[in-house]
Design a protein that fits this description.
Largest sheet: 7 strands, mixed
CATH class of the largest domain: Alpha Beta
Number of helices: 29
CATH superfamily of the largest domain: Histidine kinase-like ATPase, C-terminal domain
Helix content: 40-55%
CATH architecture of the largest domain: 2-Layer Sandwich
Strand content: 15-25%
Number of strands: 22
Shape: elongated
Distance between the termini: 144 Å
Radius of gyration: 42 Å
Length: 805
């Protein structure tokens, strides 16, 4: 190279040019250039090696994925795929795939919940990609059939990049077939389990219905003392078995997550206390000191699932009674706790007993399914071992936790804390006092101040005065609270309603106490009883539900029931009402018989051969037969009633059939027959009809004439406002507002036994879209006209009340 350079210089500068002047520098420069070239070649090779290594690594990474991964763009479609793609979809190369398909989406299978395949007109559609990219928060799945016809479920993930101003996608398909199949199997298993539980319930309850019903009938027949005892034992055993069935059904619902809270407005002083007082007879039987304390500072209206709260308390109290020995103690306490949120109220529920207690090592597992404190517990005390599990799950459903403290051999305390929303109660205790004020008689009894404090908590109007002051006044028919038993008789003679708060009264004085006196024996233990005492004296003491021995109901009834014992039982029950039903032994017979005869009521068993009750009901409704149909079923799963109503049934009675439930249904649909002729009611409401209704209300509620007058005056005031509001709603053609007002009006009318107008209100309240609109407004006008007719006779009615005997 040097020689070539010299020759060129000589040609340009002449032969005599002296190279020595810069030869050394040139040599160095040339060597630097040569070295730079060498380094460049070395660096280039290193970069080539690095790129090759990265390509191999990415290729290996791309192909080592367990998922199907491929890249694509909007112009070329699929640009690269991993080995899993070929393995999954049964292609040998990308070119082979592209020869047969423009888009992988052509292999998609149409199915609800999955990405859809493209239309035949646009097989290269990228709509599925847009759906995934635009909804990243959702889980997207594709059902794809490969070349061999095998279906696979994929979870679809797509990442979008921009290269050279063109969108570039990386698609990741995750095989979730096994997971989806397991999920589907679990859902199928759950359905089978629910069906099994329903069938098991039916199979157990069907014969139990016969035992339960005939025992009821037997107890109402002439029996000697020993026979009465035997029938009582049969009844108790029946209830025990049904409780076990209910435990299993509840556990099944909770386990499957299908149990939901049904929040309603609840008065804790009446509803929760009713659930607790059920156990008083059993406690008395075992000579157990059973005390109920409901904090008087609790609000009168709380939004809660009354059934589920009562169920927890029932389970806890049942256990306490089961494990507490004779002469032991059980305390139920419902206390109000501090709460910073004014819209809520926090309550602590606790059940404490002096029973057998629980060993410390057993406490951790006590809330697990089918676990009891000791293996001998089931043998000695019975039970399913599910009560505490169910209670703990229900507490969790309400955002709480069931806890326990216990000492073996000394007793246990189960407790939980729940916050409830407060609600506005329109009918508080203070508003229900028919003849205020309440008179609180002066006394040195230590309970006096506590009672006065409770009356303040309940916001009641009361006056403190001496016995002499009250007796010398002309006041009558008030509630009077005394602390001395000798005051009771004079107060009763002065026509007062008497509450006696006195401990240690003695058995002799208790026996001599007038039955009209409400005796609170242990006020310090459960002062909330005062609330119930005032409530009961204001209306009428609670009585056991008694079905009339004989009542002539005019009904043509069809019974569809396949179990012969149940047919005999229902027939016996209906004989009390002089009713002789027709029987069908399956749904098909019921449909035929209902077409041949006009029945007033059909009692339809659900599980029957040939044609079940639901399908039979559907057929009857399709035939245009609108006879009321009441489901008779041993299926006790939640949601059954709603399901039966949705298929066209009108009501529901659970087996074993309770005579009172049957009576309620019969009376309801007997009254409905009378409702059919309601349009014939005269638009002038006769005075004698008004007074007859009020006389019935007086007899039913045990009112005297003065209270009845006050109640009628209150009715006049309330209905004046309602008539104005309904009239305004009619002018706006606001049907829903009219229906809402009819709800409140119906309750007022029922309390005064003005049942014919109440029936009209009920018909309007529950009318649906099938109810003729003109008929709706005509009936509304009729209700208003009749109410105005009563208003026009107000003075005559009040005069007539004064002469009622």
């Amino acid at each position: 190279m040097h020689d070539l350079l010299k020759e060129q210089i000589k040609d340009n500068l002449g032969e005599e040019f002296d190279f020595s002047m810069f030869a050394d520098k040139t040599q160095l420069l040339l060597e630097d250039i040569a070295n730079s070239y060498a380094k460049y070649d070395e660096t280039t090779q290193q970069l080539k090696d690095k790129i090759e290594r990265e390509e191999k690594y990415n290729h290996m990474l791309f192909n080592s994925q367990d998922n199907v991964v491929f890249t694509m763009d909007s112009i070329n479609g699929l640009t690269s795929v991993n080995e899993k793609f070929f393995e999954t979809f049964d292609f040998d190369s990308l070119i082979e795939f592209q020869c047969e398909h423009k888009c992988l989406c052509e292999l998609f299978i149409e199915k609800d919940g999955f990405l859809s395949p493209p239309t035949l007109m646009d097989v290269s559609s990228t709509e599925w990609i847009d759906i995934v990219l635009e909804n990243p928060e959702l889980e997207h799945r594709a059902l794809i059939k490969n070349r061999a016809g095998i279906n696979t479920i994929f979870k679809v993930l797509i990442s979008s990049l921009v290269l050279n101003n063109e969108p570039f996608m990386i698609v990741n398909l995750i095989d979730v077939t096994v997971i989806e199949e397991a999920k589907e199997m679990a859902e199928t298993s759950e359905k089978l389990k629910s069906t099994f539980m329903a069938n098991m319930s039916h199979e157990i309850r069907t014969p139990m219905n016969g035992i339960f019903g005939f025992t009821k009938l037997l107890r109402n027949s002439p029996l000697n003392h020993e026979q009465q005892r035997f029938t009582k034992l049969i009844e108790h055993s029946t209830h025990t078995l049904l409780k076990l069935v209910d435990d299993i059904l509840d556990f099944s619902k909770i386990e499957s997550g299908k149990l939901e809270l049904d929040l309603v407005e609840v008065n804790p002083f009446t509803e929760l206390r009713s659930a607790a007082t059920v156990f008083l007879p059993k406690a008395k039987e075992k000579n157990i000191n059973y005390r109920i304390h409901i904090d008087a500072q609790i609000s009168e209206c709380l939004s809660m699932d009354n059934l589920r709260v009562s169920q927890i308390l029932t389970n806890l109290l049942n256990n306490a009674l089961k494990f507490t020995a004779i002469k032991g103690t059980i305390d139920l306490r419902i206390e109000k706790l501090e709460n910073s949120d004014d819209s809520k109220e926090t309550l602590k529920f606790s059940v404490e007993d002096t029973g057998i207690g629980i060993a410390e090592e057993r406490l951790k597992s006590i809330f697990k399914s089918f676990i009891q404190a000791d293996s001998s517990t089931t043998r000695n005390f019975g039970g399913s071992g599910l009560g505490l599990t169910i209670s703990a799950s229900l507490c969790a459903l309400m955002g709480s936790e069931l806890k326990v403290t216990s000492v073996e051999g000394e007793g246990s305390c189960f407790y939980f804390v729940v916050s409830f929303d407060k609600c506005e109660m329109s009918n508080t205790l203070s508003k229900q006092i028919l003849n205020p004020p309440i008179y609180l008689l002066k006394s040195y009894n230590p309970m006096f101040d506590k009672v006065a404090l409770q009356l303040k908590y309940f916001k009641l109007d009361f006056v403190v005065l001496s016995m002499d002051e009250l007796m010398n006044s002309d006041k009558k028919e008030h509630i009077a609270i005394t602390f001395e038993s000798w005051n009771c008789q004079p107060l009763l003679q002065n026509e007062h309603n008497v509450i006696l708060v006195q401990e240690d009264l003695g058995q002799k004085l208790k026996d001599e106490l007038d039955s009209n006196v409400y005796h609170i024996e242990s006020f310090s233990d459960y002062p909330s009883e005062l609330y119930n005492a005032i409530l009961e004296l204001n209306y009428t003491p609670n009585e056991e539900e008694v079905v009339a021995e004989e009542e002539d109901l005019q009904l043509e009834i069809l019974i569809a029931e396949d179990y012969d014992i149940n047919r005999i039982l229902i027939n016996e029950m209906l004989l009390k009402y002089n009713l002789i039903p027709d029987f069908a032994i399956n749904g098909e017979e019921a449909v035929l018989m209902a077409q041949q005869k006009d029945y007033d009521l059909v009692l339809m068993d659900i599980n029957m051969p040939v044609l079940n009750g639901i399908d039979a009901t559907t057929e009857l409704r399709e035939l245009g037969i609108n006879t009321p149909i009441v489901a008779l079923t041993a299926n006790a799963l939640e949601g059954d009633r709603e399901h039966f109503l949705s298929v066209g049934m009108d009501d529901y009675i659970s087996k074993p059939i309770n005579p009172q439930s049957l009576h309620t249904v019969l009376v309801k649909y007997s009254n409905e027959q009378e409702t059919e002729v309601l349009p014939e009611v005269e638009e002038v409401y006769e005075l004698e009809n008004i007074l007859a209704s009020l006389k019935s209300a007086k007899d039913t509620m045990h009112f005297n004439n003065a209270i009845l007058v006050r109640l009628f005056e209150s009715f006049m005031n309330n209905t004046t406002t309602i008539v104005e509001e309904v009239t305004a709603a009619m002018e706006k053609e606001d049907k829903e507002a009219v229906k809402a007002k009819m709800h409140g009006l119906r309750g007022i009318l029922r309390s005064l036994q003005i049942n014919d107008i109440a029936d009209m209100c009920e018909k309007l309240e529950y009318s649906d879209e099938s109810f003729d609109l003109n008929a709706f407004w005509s009936l509304t006008i009729k209700v208003l006209t009749l109410l105005k007719s009563i208003h026009g006779q107000e003075e005559e009615v009040k005069e007539g009340i004064s002469h009622l005997d």
